[in-house]
Fold this protein.
Amino acid sequence: MDQYKLELRIRRLPLALDLKPGQNHVEVTDITGHVEPDSVFLRSLEEGRHLRILEQNYRNDPVFEQLLLSLYEGKTIDFLAPDKTIVQGKIIRSGFVPHATLMYGQRYYQAQAMYAQQGAGQPVIEVNGKLQFTLPGQPIFPSLADDTVLKPTLSWELETDKAGKAAAELSYVTGGMNWEASYNVVAPVKGTELELLGWVTLDNQSGKTFRDARIKLMAGDVNKIQPNEAYMARDAISFQAGVGMSGGPQVTEKAFDEYHLYTLERPTTLHDRETKQVEFVRAAGVKSKTVYVYDGWKVDANYRNWPMETIRAQDAFGTQSNSKVWVMQEFKNSSENHLGMLLLKGRVRFYRRDDDGQLEFTGENEIDHTPKDELIRIYTGNAFDLTGERHRVDYKLNTPARWVDESFEIKGGITRARRWNCGLWSTCTGGIRGTSAKVRIRSRRWMRRLRPSRCKCLRMAKRS
């Protein structure tokens, strides 16, 4: 992922303003440390009141020692030496080098880091007419400089047409927050009816605590431009402060524009640097089945980056066999199957109860955003007692006519004392047509019931 994961998030904040007619200076500090300043939108909640931002400044450089030293460059301050004596020193260079990447990108960050490593990050202090590259002690600053801030701040020159108290709403896009979905699926000791529990995990690294916030999650590929990068598809999250309690389900879902919107109906407090889980789906009695899939074609790394026309002339291409049989868990996301809602993209962990009642982990994978009534099939691992073989039994190449005839034999076997329905899939490559080389992927499927210590043999021929 990106060094700064700038997902799309919108925060709405009610403001109580006390204004005079004309121009007013207003500062807002109840904001995150990752505001996109040009996304700020201020609107009046009072009918007939005019509000207009004439000028806006965003500061996110809360004061710390090196920054304050930089503000006192060229001045003499006191230092508390290790022996508890006071030493006066003139700050020639503070050693402060900013490493901002939001607007200028990774290349600027690396250049600034290199600049600091080459010596610019060392302070230079003059003590008794001599220069030294270390601080003579703990700096004691006489006061905060006039242009220092203690927390991220939006400063406005605000114009209004009326005097008095005004109710307004501030909205902005911010980074520093992320969310993801995950699922725990439990199978019984015997049988295929599943229990499913879905969590939404919220991660707040924005520098701001959200108290009693109502949270909305937008599922879908929301387009978001990254600094100095291509357009990226992201999910979105929205925070609204000061919302009261409400009854009903914990999470509600609805279609919104071209996406789906999940609302966490219970207000929650999300502290800065906190990770929180909220349950958003729970279902029992989910009917499922286990499907075993064999794809016998094994990719030969020796042919990587070869032109396809050259590859097709190699009679050894495609002869390697994969022996592993995939284990796939399959269930339908429908109301009849006790689900029937849009399932968010995320990790799915599978467990099965042992005879002693303990849960045993049996595999995991990820699903994409899955609409209602879609079939979900998830690969969880390879079967221990199922094997497959794929052999080419005939090969004919006619280069002038630009075709290849191939015949394959596919075998599936089982050693466990049970019967299984196993899908044997064969992946075929080919499709040299006309004057250009193209590749077409085809899969053919046969469902076969396998008995212990026996194998099924299938043959397939194709021309490409």
